[in-house]
Specification:
heterodimer, A: alpha/beta, Rossmann fold, 3 domains, 6-stranded mixed β-sheet, 17 helices, globular, B: mainly alpha, ABC transporter involved in vitamin B12 uptake, BtuC, two-stranded antiparallel ribbon, binds adenosine-5'-triphosphate, binds magnesium ion
Chain lengths: 519, 363
């Protein structure tokens, strides 16, 4: 008893028996958690385990149904994020909340509670970003920033208020390995200064490298606590899922068939003033294979994806061919009618409409298929059946087809989108970051589904930052850098070092690796 | 201490439906206070304003006569607003519908044929549609803001009508009053309730409400409208053309407003005046929002707002209150509706001024 009391007394944050129910779901079930000053603590769990819900309660975005929260020993009720910030709690959300059309400094000014003259603020942003090595230009507009830089804005915004607890919800799922490494240095520095970090991630390797304690949630309950440094990624994953982890299996021989999707010398100006123009990109995806496109974010991936899906039209119809027929001037609907399905980059607001139900969101991209549209009228029953099929086949954790897409956890929404596209039996699938924010078990299932799809004869193109994933599933690999695409290489003949060179843009006009023979 | 709005964590759907009722309640309370301050017995004044107008069958029929154009226009506007297309110029589209419909009636003066009315309806629809298509073209082609263009076209339309009834279309036997001839019977909508002005326009309006409901809840068009309004990026991903939708909703809302204008001149008015509308086109904006941009809501909102027109007239006659009272009540209603809308989404917090921004130690 005495030990518990003294433990709680030194704890920065102590949660006891936190419960939170949403209609039809118990998101947190008597969760208890203790965080010490200067500790980097991981919160692990499958998609929908209740991690985001728990930290939103701590940050005052959601209110717990019951349970107690102590902050530095005192019982507190956090009614709003502003109050949490006053206590010294900062949070970086899973989905960012920045205004694209404002500058970095303006965004930060909006996010802090005090009115500070812009000049002082700019100065302080400069100081904080220098102190933590988080380079930021306060005058830049947010829409010109890469995802990693945007996250830096959010972090600096938190740090300006001098938090003693920093919560990060899946911060690295959108970062490049280099950006992630830099983030870890910052977090270690903060911890050394006494700041507590509560860290949510599905990347188990980085948790092993970064965190000294971990709490594992499953179905809203704490099922284990451990020291991740003494565990393996596999054992952590099994604690989360409570079962063995499957590894995706490749089909045997490469039985690639005809070219299905071909891009010929595609050049496109970006629609965004600070986007990356596409320069002379050529590629082809054959039936039965997976082509991976690697690359650091912000090198033209959104522009290339928009051109492939038809959201941006090409000047020249011949720049994109489907089965040898020009489609460069056709919009997304016409390309869908030809068997193209797309998993977009943004799952909220692009891949789904958050306020709409899963039935409606299933219909959103699948309206041409499965008899969901007849004579201009929605077939409600077919829509609901399709959504149920997705939920079942991809074990999406959701109360049912009538649930709003916005109420799903990040990873479950991703599973839903993947399921929606694959269940349409695409002949050509274009997938961006297919396993973004998805837990280890579900990631394996999604990768398996992509492999199976290719094996069944579809042409699959995967754009991802995750080299491990591309090495695991792709047959051929190409790299995009500053809007140019390297020639594709057989994945099994490519080393990680070669991929790294390509990602740094070390390829010539023909797209082949340039070997530098520096003295 | 500065008040400040803070988003609430969850907004319940029930509250969204309840706010119109709360807004009506608050408007009544404010009405009581206002009448009392003006020195009237609030009970009697409110009775005169809200109950007496509908205490007779004739009163009810007048209510429906006034609600008809509001509902017809409101449905079209709701479709557009759902897609974030802000057609503010329904008054102009209404006026153009009246001009075109009325023009056909005058052209066929002396012709007894059942074809006159359908021809007038088509002309009214086309007139309103054309007036809605101009902002659509300007928006799609030049990215001109439809709020401004549609509003400005309203003034063009009313001046055009004024010119016509002062000049070419003036009644030759009309003692120089700026009015057209009275329409012939064949150009007047059949009345469905004896001794009243209630015409077949009312049941047609009901059908339009139903059609709007089907479009929004079941039709692919309604689905696309909702997606464009809620997540433009999702619409573009799904392959819904935003341009086509802008064209569609502006043309549809223009056409409906035009039809309402034709109903008005071939129904209650029966000829062309310099002014054919007590602001139906603008009031329908309130109707659309009060009805939560939902067709059934629009129907109820149209009835309520129609009541405020009748109440204002009666209060003028019986209590000698200015007719502006109608506008005051409509304004209060919109004010309270928007206010409660904000307050269910945000809470008000008071906080002290002062910098509390600090740098990390050790820097
Ligand atoms: N606003 C909401 N309304 C209804 N249900 C919700 C809401 N927010 C979350 N849930 C449900 O609560 C459960 C926990 O969700 P939460 O977002 O906390 O998961 P998570 O652990 O963060 O998952 P992920 O790793 O996928 O982000 C899920 O089943 C989710 O569907
Ligand atoms: Mg989450």
């Amino acid at each position: 008893m005495a030990a518990v009391a003294s433990d709680d007394a030194t704890a920065r944050l102590a949660l006891t028996d936190i419960c939170k129910t949403f209609p039809g779901v118990v998101a947190n079930d008597r969760v208890s958690l203790t965080l010490r000053p200067g500790e980097i603590h991981a919160l692990l769990g499958e998609n929908g385990a209740g991690k985001s819900t728990l930290v939103k309660i701590v940050y005052g975005v959601l209110r717990a149904d019951s349970g107690e929260m102590r902050w530095n020993g005192q019982i507190v009720q956090v009614g709003s994020p502003a109050q949490a910030r006053r206590l010294g709690i900062g949070m970086v959300f899973q989905h960012f909340s920045l205004f694209d059309s404002l500058t970095v400094a303006e965004n930060i000014a909006l996010g802090i509670d005090e009115k500070v003259p812009m000049r002082d603020l700019t100065e302080r942003i400069g100081e904080v970003s220098a102190h933590y090595g988080l380079a930021l230009d306060p005058g830049r507009h947010v829409h010109t920033l890469s995802v990693g830089e945007r996250q830096r804005v959010e972090i600096v915004r938190c740090l300006l208020q001098n938090p003693s607890l920093l919560i990060m919800d899946e911060p690295t799922s959108v970062l490049t390995p280099q950006e992630a490494d830099r983030l870890f240095e910052t977090l270690r520095q903060l911890a050394a200064e006494g700041v507590t970090v509560l860290y949510i991630s599905h990347k188990l390797e980085e948790i092993r490298a970064l965190c000294e304690a971990a709490t594992v949630l499953r179905g809203g309950r704490v099922v284990a606590t451990c020291d991740p440094r003494t565990e393996t990624a596999r054992s952590l994953a099994q604690m989360m899922i409570g079962a063995e982890l499957a590894t995706p299996e490749r089909g045997g021989a490469d039985a690639a068939g005809n070219d299905r999707l071909t891009v010929r010398n595609l050049s496109l100006e970006s629609e965004h003033p600070f986007g990356t123009p596409i320069r002379n990109v050529s590629l082809s995806v054959r039936a039965g294979e997976i082509l991976g496109i690697a690359g650091v974010a912000g090198n033209g991936q959104p522009e290339l994806l928009a051109a492939l899906s038809g959201e941006t039209l090409c000047e020249d119809a011949d720049a994109i061919l489907l089965d040898g027929r020009p489609v460069g001037r056709l919009g997304p609907r016409a390309r869908r009618a030809r068997g193209v399905c797309v998993v977009p980059e943004e799952r909220m607001g692009q891949g789904t409409v958050p306020e709409m139900t899963l039935s409606e969101n299933g219909f959103l991209s699948a309206y041409l298929r499965s008899g969901m549209l007849r004579q201009g009228l929605l077939q409600v029953r077919a829509m609901s059946r399709f959504a149920s099929d997705i939920i079942q086949a991809y074990s999406v954790m959701a109360p049912g087809p009538a649930a709003a897409a916005g109420s799903l956890s990040g990873g479950n929404l991703q599973k839903f989108i993947i399921g929606r596209e694959i269940l349409q039996n695409p002949e050509i699938l274009i997938a961006a970051h297919p396993t973004w924010g998805v837990d280890a078990g579900a990631a394996a299932a999604i990768q398996q589904a992509l492999l199976d799809l290719a094996k069944a004869g579809a042409a699959v193109l995967v754009v991802s930052q995750d080299l491990d994933e591309l090495f695991a599933i792709s047959d051929r690999l190409a790299v995009i850098c500053e809007g140019r695409l390297s020639a594709s290489r057989l994945t099994r003949d490519t080393t990680v070092e070669q991929a790294g060179l390509l990602m740094g843009g070390m390829f010539d006009e023909a797209g082949e690796i340039v070997e530098t023979h520096a003295a | 201490m500065l008040p400040r709005l803070e988003p609430r964590s969850g907004v319940s759907a029930a509250m969204m439906l309840l706010t119109p009722a709360i807004a009506v309640g608050l408007t009544l309370i404010a009405g009581v206070i206002m009448f009392a301050a003006l020195g009237f017995d609030p009970g009697r004044a409110l009775y005169t304003f809200f109950v007496k107008p509908v205490s007779t069958l004739y009163g009810v029929s007048e209510l429906l006569v006034k609600a008809t154009p509001l509902a017809v226009i409101g449905i079209g506007l709701a479709l557009g607003f759902r897609a974030n297309v802000w057609n503010i110029g329904a008054e102009g589209q209404f006026t153009l519908g009246a001009i075109c419909g009325g023009g056909v009636a005058l052209a066929f003066h002396g012709v007894e044929s059942w074809l006159v009315l359908p021809a007038m309806a088509v002309a009214g629809i086309l007139g309103g549609l054309a007036w809605g298509a101009i902002p659509a073209f300007l928006r799609v082609r030049f990215n001109a803001n439809e709020i401004l263009t549609s509003l400005m076209l309203t003034y063009v339309a009313t001046l055009l009508l004024s010119y016509l009834v002062h000049g070419p279309w003036r009644d030759p036997e009309g003692l120089n009053f700026p009015e057209s001839r009275m329409f012939e019977d064949s150009a007047l909508l059949p009345v469905i309730l004896d001794e009243t002005r209630l015409s077949i326009a009312a049941p047609i309006a009901l059908l339009i409400v139903l059609a709007g409901w089907v479009v929004l809840s079941r039709a692919f068009l309604g689905f696309q409208i909702k997606v464009v309004g809620q997540s433009p990026a999702a619409a573009s991903y799904a392959g819904f053309s935003e341009k086509r939708l802008i064209w569609t909703v502006l043309c549809v809302s223009g056409a409906l407003a035009g039809l309402a204008g034709m109903f008005e001149v071939s129904g209650p008015i029966g000829q062309l005046h310099p002014v054919v509308s007590p602001g139906y086109g603008f009031t329908a904006i309130i109707v659309a929002f009060l009805g939560r941009l939902h067709p059934v809501g629009v129907l109820f909102a149209a009835l309520l707002i129609a009541l405020s027109y009748l109440g204002g007239e009666l209060a003028q006659i019986e209590l000698k209150l200015p007719l502006a009272l109608t506008g005051v009540f409509q304004g209060m209603l919109l004010f309270f509706l928007l206010g409660t809308d904000v307050l269910i989404r945000y809470r008000i917090r008071f906080r002290r001024r002062g910098a509390r921004i600090a740098l990390p130690q050790g820097g």
